[in-house]
Amino acid sequence: MTQRPGPRPLSDEALSDLLGKQRFGTLATVKRSGHLTTMVYSWDPDARIVRFSTTADRIKVVHLRHDPRAALHVQGGDVWSYAVAEGEAEASGITAVPGDAVGRELLGMIPESARPEDEDAFLEELVAERRMVIRLKVDRLYGTALDIDGEGPEVASGCPCR
Predict the structure, then answer these.
(1) How large a percentage of the chain has pLDDT more than 90?
(2) Which residues, 6+ apart, have CB-to-CB distance to 9 below 8 Å?
(3) Cβ atoms of residues 46 and 69 within 8 Å
(4) Are the C-beta atoms of 136 and 46 separated by less than 8 Å?
(5) CA–CA dist 36, 144 (Å, integer)
(6) Is 14 buried (19+), middle (13-18) or exposed (0-12) by CB count in 10 A?
(7) I need a labelling partner for 122 at 20 to 30 A (CA). Which of 8, 38, 97, 107 fits?
């Protein structure tokens, strides 16, 4: 019988690269039965912070204020690779004045190529929507990949995670 390859842990650098490459992930917050939600995020590898934009009325904000533990699961380039970022999250205040610190932080989460042409209108919209930032301070980063036919899934999918 041929032994199939097992999953291998990804290095911290490969995990950070995977988090930086993706834009969507699943945020898990704590409640009696758990809570999962798909989120757009921004990864700051130097500060080891994942940032999410949300509105003040979302249940995830209530959960995080009650218990700040959270995790972000990000799928790699194939079904065999993933990264998980765990830590404590904090919710900012609501952006209240167009261009305030929270509004600027939200604007800074958008890649340069996708920034709105009219930043002032965008910042006003953030205030109207009662937007805020969730900051996940990552203290544990882990994930795996599965090598198939001698190549890691990152190579097969084009992910520069090695």
Answers:
(1) 80
(2) 142, 143, 144
(3) no
(4) no
(5) 21
(6) buried
(7) 38
Q: What is the pTM of this model?
A: 0.86
State the DSSP string of 141-159: EE-EEE-BTTB-HHHHHT-
For range 37-57, the mean pLDDT: 97
Name the helix (H) or strand (E) containing 69.
Answer: strand 69-75
pLDDT digits (tens, 9 = 90+) for 87-126: 999 999 999 999 999 999 999 999 999 999 999 999 999 9
Question: What burial letters (b/e) apply to 28-60, b meaning 16+ CB within 10 Å?
Answer: bbeeeeebeeebebbbeeeebbbbbbbeeebeb
CB 132 within 8 A of CB 56: yes
Give the residue ranges of DSSP H helices in 59-147: 59-66, 101-108, 119-128
CA angle at residue 47 from 44 to 49, to 5 degrees?
A: 55
